Automatic annotation (TrEMBL):
<comment type="function">
    <text>Converts 2-succinylbenzoate (OSB) to 2-succinylbenzoyl-CoA (OSB-CoA).</text>
</comment>
<protein>
    <recommendedName>
        <fullName>2-succinylbenzoate--CoA ligase</fullName>
        <ecNumber>6.2.1.26</ecNumber>
    </recommendedName>
</protein>
<keyword id="KW-0547">Nucleotide-binding</keyword>
<dbReference type="InterPro" id="IPR042099">
    <property type="entry name" value="ANL_N_sf"/>
</dbReference>
<dbReference type="Pfam" id="PF13193">
    <property type="entry name" value="AMP-binding_C"/>
</dbReference>
<dbReference type="InterPro" id="IPR000873">
    <property type="entry name" value="AMP-dep_synth/lig_dom"/>
</dbReference>
<feature type="domain" description="AMP-dependent synthetase/ligase">
    <location>
        <begin position="6"/>
        <end position="325"/>
    </location>
</feature>
<dbReference type="Pfam" id="PF00501">
    <property type="entry name" value="AMP-binding"/>
</dbReference>
<dbReference type="InterPro" id="IPR045851">
    <property type="entry name" value="AMP-bd_C_sf"/>
</dbReference>
<comment type="similarity">
    <text>Belongs to the ATP-dependent AMP-binding enzyme family. MenE subfamily.</text>
</comment>
<keyword id="KW-0067">ATP-binding</keyword>
<dbReference type="InterPro" id="IPR025110">
    <property type="entry name" value="AMP-bd_C"/>
</dbReference>
<keyword id="KW-0474">Menaquinone biosynthesis</keyword>
<feature type="domain" description="AMP-binding enzyme C-terminal">
    <location>
        <begin position="389"/>
        <end position="463"/>
    </location>
</feature>
<comment type="pathway">
    <text>Quinol/quinone metabolism; menaquinone biosynthesis.</text>
</comment>
<dbReference type="InterPro" id="IPR020845">
    <property type="entry name" value="AMP-binding_CS"/>
</dbReference>
<keyword id="KW-0436">Ligase</keyword>
Length: 482
């Protein structure tokens, strides 16, 4: 299909493609700017290979560089700026990348490839280069590495067709208007952020970039700017609710709602959204599916609090009979893990369904509810315990600001649940937490031990990294509550 950047420049040349609140570019200006950047990148020799790494935050320069790589027909290898040089070098070697473009303030010391800063690109004279006229739907637009809780992360190959299918399914669910402006506060080097950029190109929609998540600042943007949608993960939503509940002003009249991803959330928080008249659409997806494949509609959301919704128009979904593992078929699904066909094969059933590793159930109306990761499930005395369920039961606990649950080995029960707690201002006792849990959960689901922690380890998209909590215990870095 025709180059999306060029197509939108022809269809809606004066419509704003991207803004960071200070500088805005129309689709015509975006097309012109990406052509200029490609000629500069060509002069630097950065476009000789098919894959080019990009290390950036949510800056306008980073956005434009990513668009320039797509415009040149290259594959973006997205690098997570929070990773160590050792972790990044693994991904660079695995993807066979020779050039890494990087935001100036980010550290590239120790990277085993040629590094070119974005300011260096900007200052380079142009050289003749012809942009890509068509986007091949089977060609790789991007490669993203999964978080990798055990072993090395996998490079997820995402085609233009995958991204187009994802954006199309989302539009059929949420609707699209010419006035839409999507606030991108989630990282663009994760699928949650990059999918917003791709939707912007496909829909002809404005992308509003912001470089960090500060609840007060984001609230003011939602109040004072014509933002219609924002993508959030649970901890972002809770922080925004706290600001809203403090009596702050209402969001602008064009605001339509929030797309919530990144894991399940407790029903108490979603009911707070209802009380504050904030439309929240829960969704379910992964890097391998280029964002959401299951979501609630705005219409269904109030009646099905806690559900991730129904499979989107292009998605087939079933549950494995023996485990209730979620299995899917969708044109948004990545065709491969880079250089690891055996791992992709291991995730595919004999009849061609992709095994997500997540556990869930359908209600009587066909709405999907996510229990959590199958590998997070705790088997204690033959009973299955899902950390998300336990955490949801403690969501309104007056003794703790937040809680995270993992399973640890136990001689008597095989495994037992334990919890990490961020305390509030009052004195915290394990006995109080146990009693609170037993009023709301089966006794075997109540954590047997509680450990104090200042903040939870999360990845760049805000997801809790439970494996790091286990490391805290193994390394005796956690203080147990008495």
């Amino acid at each position: 299909m025709e180059n999306w950047i060029k197509k939108q420049a022809a269809l809606a040349p004066t419509r704003t493609a991207v803004t960071n609140g200070t500088t805005s570019l129309s689709f015509a200006q975006l097309a012109q700017t990406t052509d200029q950047l490609d000629r500069k990148l060509a002069a630097l020799g950065a476009l000789k290979e098919q894959r080019v790494a990009l290390l950036t935050d949510n800056s306008l320069a980073g956005y434009l560089t990513a668009m320039a790589l797509l415009n040149a027909g290259k594959t973006i290898v997205w690098l997570n700026r929070r990773l160590s040089a050792q972790e990044l070098n693994y991904q660079l070697a695995d993807s066979q990348v020779n050039v890494c473009l990087y935001e100036d303030q980010l550290d590239v010391n120790g990277l085993n490839c040629q590094t070119i800063s974005l300011s260096q690109v900007k200052a380079t004279p142009e050289q003749a280069f012809t942009a890509c006229s068509d986007f091949n739907t089977t060609a790789a637009a991007s490669i993203m590495y999964t978080s990798g809780t055990t072993g090395q992360p996998k490079g997820v190959v995402q085609t233009f067709g995958n991204h187009f299918s994802s954006a199309t399914a989302s539009a059929l669910n949420l609707g699209v208007t010419p006035a839409d402006e999507w606030l991108c506060t989630v990282p663009i080097f994760h699928i949650s952020g990059f999918s917003i950029m791709m939707r912007g190109l496909i829909y002809g929609m404005t992308v509003r970039l912001t470089n960090r998540f500060d609840a007060e600042e984001i609230h003011q943007m939602l109040v004072n700017e014509p933002i219609t949608m924002i993508s959030v993960v649970p901890y972002m939503l809770k922080k925004l609710l706290a600001v809203k509940q403090a009596g702050q002003a209402s969001y602008n009249q064009q605001f339509r709602g929030m797309l919530l991803g990144g894991g399940p959330i407790d029903q108490a928080t979603l009911k707070q959204c209802q009380e504050l008249n904030i439309s929240v659409v829960q969704s379910y997806g992964m890097t391998e599916t280029c964002s959401q494949i299951v979501a609630l509609s705005f219409t269904d959301a109030p009646q099905h609090i806690g559900s991730s919704g129904k499979p989107l128009f292009l998605t087939q979904l079933r549950l494995a009979e023996d485990t209730n593992e979620i299995q899917i078929k969708t044109p948004a699904l990545s065709p491969a893990y880079l250089g690891q066909p055996e791992k992709r094969a291991a995730k595919t059933t004999a009849d061609g369904w992709f095994k997500t590793g997540d556990i869930g159930h359908f209600d009587a109306d066909g709405f999907l509810y996510i229990h959590g990761r199958g590998d997070d499930m705790i088997i204690s005395g033959g009973e299955n315990i899902f950390p998300d369920e336990v955490e949801a039961a403690y969501a309104q606990c007056p003794f703790a600001a937040d809680i995270a649950v993992i399973g640890v080995n136990d001689d008597q029960w095989e495994q037992k649940p334990v919890a990490f707690v961020i305390p509030n201002e009052q004195t915290l006792l394990a006995r109080d937490l146990i009693d609170y849990g037993r009023e709301r959960l089966a006794h075997y689901k109540v954590p047997k031990n509680f450990y104090l922690i200042d903040q939870f380890p999360r990845n760049a998209s805000g997801k809790l990294q439970r494996f790091k909590l286990r490391q805290f215990l193994d390394e005796h870095r956690a203080k147990e509550l008495e």
